[in-house]
């Protein structure tokens, strides 16, 4: 009986993680759609686009970490930080696979995702 409870608890923790990461990725998807629509109408430069994308990454990590922090109930900032790092890793690997090249400017998005995740966990 004790093993069933432990197994159930681990599954629910994994479910919490998957839910929070999915929310972060959905916020990113919706944000990219909004940026694309705005860009097609306003024709702004690449500097503005980069700033919007960096902001979107931080906001997405913040949103997922807030949900994860509410569900975990303890050490929220650490869970948020970890979610931000995992979120960055997912984005980084997807970009690496799609573009096939290494971007040396990846440290700023890493810091923003980690900070956004940690803040989201703290404010949850």
Automatic annotation (TrEMBL):
<dbReference type="Pfam" id="PF12670">
    <property type="entry name" value="DUF3792"/>
</dbReference>
<protein>
    <submittedName>
        <fullName>TIGR04086 family membrane protein</fullName>
    </submittedName>
</protein>
<feature type="transmembrane region" description="Helical">
    <location>
        <begin position="49"/>
        <end position="69"/>
    </location>
</feature>
<keyword id="KW-1133">Transmembrane helix</keyword>
<dbReference type="InterPro" id="IPR023804">
    <property type="entry name" value="DUF3792_TM"/>
</dbReference>
<keyword id="KW-0472">Membrane</keyword>
<keyword id="KW-0812">Transmembrane</keyword>
<feature type="transmembrane region" description="Helical">
    <location>
        <begin position="17"/>
        <end position="37"/>
    </location>
</feature>
<feature type="transmembrane region" description="Helical">
    <location>
        <begin position="76"/>
        <end position="94"/>
    </location>
</feature>
């Amino acid at each position: 009986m004790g093993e069933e409870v432990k197994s159930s608890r681990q599954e629910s923790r994994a479910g919490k993680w998957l839910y929070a990461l999915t929310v972060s990725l959905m916020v990113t998807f919706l944000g990219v759609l909004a940026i694309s629509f705005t860009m097609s109408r306003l024709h702004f430069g690449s500097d503005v686009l980069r700033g919007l994308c960096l902001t979107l990454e931080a906001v997405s990590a913040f949103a997922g970490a807030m949900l994860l922090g509410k569900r975990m109930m303890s050490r929220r900032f650490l869970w948020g930080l970890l979610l931000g790092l995992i979120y960055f890793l997912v984005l980084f690997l997807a970009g690496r696979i799609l573009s096939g090249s290494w971007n040396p400017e990846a440290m700023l998005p890493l810091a923003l995702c980690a900070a956004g995740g940690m803040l989201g966990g703290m404010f949850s």
